Amino acid sequence: MTPGDLLLISLAGMVGGLLAHRSPRRWLAATLVGAGAALGAAVWTLAGGGVWDWQPDFRLGGELVHLHLDGLSALFLALLSVLGAAGSVYAGEYWPDRRHPISAPVGRVWWNGLLLFMGLVLVSANGLHFLIAWEIYTVCAYFLITQERRKPAVRQAGWLYLAASHFGTLCLFAFFALLAVHTGGWDLKPMRDHPELAPLFWLALAGFGLKAGIFPLHIWLPSAHANAPSHVSAIMSGVTIKMGIYGLMRFSGWLPTPAAAGWVVAALGVESAVLGVVFALGQHDLKRLLAYHSVENIGIILIGLGFAMIASAHGQPGWGRLALAGALLHVWNHGLFKALLFLGAGSVLHATGTREMSRLGGLWRAMPWTAGLFTLGAMAIAGLPPLNGFVSEWLVFLGLFGALPAHPAALPAAGHDPASWAAATAAILLGLTGALALACFVKVCGVVFLGLPRSEAARQVHECGWRMRAPMLLLGALCAGIGLAPVLFWPAVACASAVWEPAWLADAPAPAPLLALGAFHLALAALATLAASALWHRVKRNGLARAGTWDCGYAAPTARMQYTAGSFAGTITSWFDWILRPHRHSHLPRDPFPAQASYEEHTPETVLEHVVQPAGAGVMWVSNLVRGLQHGRLQAYLFYLLLGLAGLIVLALMGGGK
Amino acid sequence: MMPALDMALRLAACLLLAPLLPGIINRVKSWVAGRRGPPVLQLYYDLAKLWRKGVVLSTAVSPGHVAGPAVAWVALAVASLLLPLGPAGAPLAFPGDALLFVYLLALARFCTASAAMDAGSAFEGMGVVREVSYAVINEAAIIAALLTLGVQTGSVSLSVMLAPPAAGAGAALLAAGLFGVLLAENCRVPFDDPNTHLELTMIHEAMVLDHSGPPLAAILHGAALKLLLFAVLLAKTVLALTSLSWLATMGALGASVLVIVVLVGLVESLLARLAFRRVPLLLATSFLLCVFALLVAWKGGRL
Amino acid sequence: MTDTLNLFIGLAMGLNLLALASSRLPSVIRAAALQGMVLGILPLLIEHDWQWMVVLVSIGTIAVKGFVIPHLLRRALRAANIDREMKPLIGFVPSLLLGAAATVGAVALGGVLPLLPEHADSLLVPGSFATVVAGFLMLMGRTKAISQVCGYLILENGIYLFGLLLINSTPLLVEAGILLDLTVAVFVIGIIMDRIQKEFDTLDTNKLTTLHE
């Protein structure tokens, strides 16, 4: 069973599912077979460290087909298959045929198309086919996002996504075309020995960065991920934005990069991480908040990648490997816990019908599974031990600390090393991001699941069925698994790292700290469970009574008096007012007596509102002016002809005079 | 066998000695105010009493209300195993354990904050908001302090970072910064008044309003443990403890922890709690002190 | 000797940040005064043989910057009847962070500039840049005239610090001249502020912008 056979089975499964879209069961079976086969191929490649390369003799679009599966592609392919499978099972109950008789079957077609063409992007080694697959999956994603086309917000989100994605694809067209011109063909392979290709990296950064959602190119991300159906949001946040990361990693590994590239990537990573989480704190829409956290985590991945690029340029494998390993592992970890969070948010939306956090509350009572698994995902994304988010952030931190001067004696010389200054700044800002993420997820879990219900929608809720619970359980188990036994996943990460930088050996053993960390996490998890049960036991033994929450003697406390999403984040968002620029509408009572009052705060997307829309308005203004030239009067057109002729004469005279 | 015994002994020592510190602080405050004050062992009596009491749970809370304090306590207890005590080093040490230490504190914070939000009250919400907001700046300060120690020693393991002798202006700056972080993380004046009875002015106290009995005992003991951890960290940052015998090292460490705790008591007695809008300024000052310590370590080549 | 010098300059840089973070005007005046005194001692540390001129200028600087100017400012403070900066244009935490960033940047810049070997290790150049930027921050960020005067004083301290680099070639008479200039300026500003307060009953520069007609 070579990876080629498995990939063929996977292709057959996906296409079969696409054809069987009218029957949910057959579609699910075919899609799961496809996902499983792809996972098998990926695991085979990662475990064996081999490379599968297939160059058959037929042409597609004028170019020879060339498929290539190595460690880096396999890592992303494995993530794609796991999340694809989870999302497929989830969609069966979340977007059932009886509630959406038209969009559900059609959605299944687009779903399989998305998975299939993302897989093709990962294995393509020909620039033209890469672009074709890239464009097709973007269009599939558009149709998936706009499944609820009746709502204007969804239509706007889809349009923004399409416009932004095509801007990125335009940059990628330019990138691949220039690459083809310089290398004489569309074939992609390691091309480190062509230094003239280095400036093309900036085009790749723009194109792939837009897809990945780097701040300020992320403007499409919040609305698209918030308005899409939850399983689509999960796959988009989990895998689709990682396609941008895949492109950046692939082409920074295969192509030479400019000297400043590592610095720019690291700087973009740091600012995406901090600004992403700051914007997330300002949101009160559950899925929009999760979308901004994707921006933050992409930032963390880019910090690792950027510093790995700096290390590779300076020839320092020690800490560079750790930073890269952190970035690669975070790709996986973020895919897992973000998908878990989106599926949980989908369950909440499914039960309550609203994404507005300040109308929810107390959901744990009726939805214990969703609450527990969402909290698990929240702890993972906040980077808390013993879960997987901590492991990848820890690896990135180790890489950054490793960039500091290695020995006290080396300090005077190394004091002027810019990489160490940058690493220190990045480490402080990464710590800041972690604390902000913790604050944000305490807010989400506390406001949505804990406390008391704030509205009728939150009171009449029911737990989701097993088909929605099972994918969440799988993802939660994987999060815990990677956290408790990170050493098991190290070989995969090392294999992918070796593809990126062949000089860094693949079979170097796992760094010893990882083993110790895993053991520590196991002990921590065991002790925590033990302590919690011991404390419950003691409480039961001592005697348990119930009473109302302490209200300081207030006569009429209500559930609406609890902290809302906006008030929770109020302290921190006031520190960042300068970039968040929230819109506040308040109607406060003036008289001494209680009266009706309202207060509303909304944080729009600043880059969209203050940069892109004014720029667009400017372009429209200029276009309107220019349109004035086209008014239909024949006399004026004749005048234009005369003007043009006069201009040509003047030019000719000037040129002839020389 | 010996390492396991050593680990158990250290853990037991930390757990047993921790409740002494709030007692000493209260004694110092009473002395400054001219009162007799509660006995130094008061927290031990309180913990024993709470452990035997029944619990009144709010009707709004989930099982996380009891599980949260337990997990937070475990996180803090396990973090104490990562701190080195003199030449004996730490029971558990590996590269990167300094960051694990910081994130274990974050885990404890998440658990207590979630347990507080459970009660569905605006008072707890107030406390949680302030706690997690100020933690943002504290985290930056702690990472800056770890970077300073890392630049100094070239390692990311607490056992190595806290070993070498410290001297000079850089150590003074780092000590001042870490002292500010200690006061903020342990909810002491001037960031939070542990004796206030006004819910609108509480941070830590507001978060535990609805806890009672054994979970409250776990929280109080955990808070004392956190104070011990920060005091030991601060003491080890400024003292040169490697060149002495084991007994002398323990004695010196104990004496410096005592000095730090007495200093906390004096600060509590002599300063007033800051208005909440001024707190970020003071937190930013501690952060900047740590950053300047980093700068001194970098530029000077020595701390 | 360089260590003691660096300690004093470090103290002066710390006083910058103290002035930027304080909202109470007496504290700001005290910080600027203390900084002036600390910097006044520096010529005694740099010059190895103490001529009577050096000692005289040093004592004069300490006296004027530490006592005379603050006295004038406190008199103006009493006349204007204010003691706090309530609504600065740049908030206290941002100005503190900006001042700290300027200090770090100044240290980095000092490492890159081509200095003489005897100045390469000392904090003279970074300290002066940081103090100048801190003075500018106070001038730009505050609305009360007295805070702006203190910002001007801190700016002058920074320039003075930079001038110490040339202590061997510039006659100290120039330093004394600058000091006289400073005293006269503050004296005149004190009189003007008194007049403004009497005439318009406010020293808030936000309100004074309507005078431009």
Write the layout of secondary structure elements.
The complex is a heterotrimer of chains A (658), B (303) and C (213).
Chain A: H1 3-19, H2 24-48, E1 52-54, E2 59-60, E3 63-64, E4 67-69, H3 71-94, H4 103-123, H5 127-145, H6 152-183, H7 200-212, H8 221-227, H9 230-254, H10 261-281, H11 286-314, H12 317-352, H13 368-381, H14 388-402, H15 411-414, H16 418-449, H17 456-459, H18 466-484, H19 490-500, H20 512-542, E5 544-547, H21 565-568, H22 570-575, H23 577-580, E6 583-587, E7 598-602, H24 606-627, H25 634-657
Antiparallel strand pairs in A: 1-4, 2-3, 6-7
Chain B: H1 2-17, H2 20-33, H3 42-52, E1 55-58, H4 64-80, H5 97-117, H6 122-153, H7 158-161, H8 168-185, H9 204-207, H10 213-238, H11 246-270, H12 279-300
Helix pairs in contact in B: 2-11, 3-10, 4-5, 4-10, 5-6, 6-8, 6-12, 8-10, 8-12, 10-11
Chain C: H1 2-21, H2 25-46, H3 52-80, H4 92-112, H5 117-120, H6 124-141, H7 145-163, H8 172-200, H9 205-208
What does this entry look like structurally?
The complex is a heterotrimer of chains A (658), B (303) and C (213). Chain A has helices at 3-19, 24-48, 71-94, 103-123, 127-145, 152-183, 200-212, 221-227, 230-254, 261-281, 286-314, 317-352, 368-381, 388-402, 411-414, 418-449, 456-459, 466-484, 490-500, 512-542, 565-568, 570-575, 577-580, 606-627, 634-657; strands at residues 52-54, 59-60, 63-64, 67-69, 544-547, 583-587, 598-602. Chain A has 658 residues and is mainly alpha-helical. Chain A folds into 3 domains: 1-250, no CATH class; 257-404 and 419-531 and 561-580, no CATH class; 608-655. A two-stranded antiparallel ribbon of chain A has the order 1-4. Chain A has a two-stranded antiparallel sheet with strand order 2-3. In chain A, α8 (221-227) runs antiparallel to α9 (230-254) and α12 runs antiparallel to α18 (466-484). The longest helix of chain A has 36 residues, at 317-352. Chain B has 303 residues and is mainly alpha-helical. The longest helix of chain B is centred in the middle third of the chain and has 32 residues, at 122-153. Chain B is globular, with a radius of gyration of 19 Å. Chain C is mainly α and 213 residues long. Chain C has one domain (2-207). Chain C has 9 helices and no strands. The interface between B and C is small, with 10 and 13 residues.
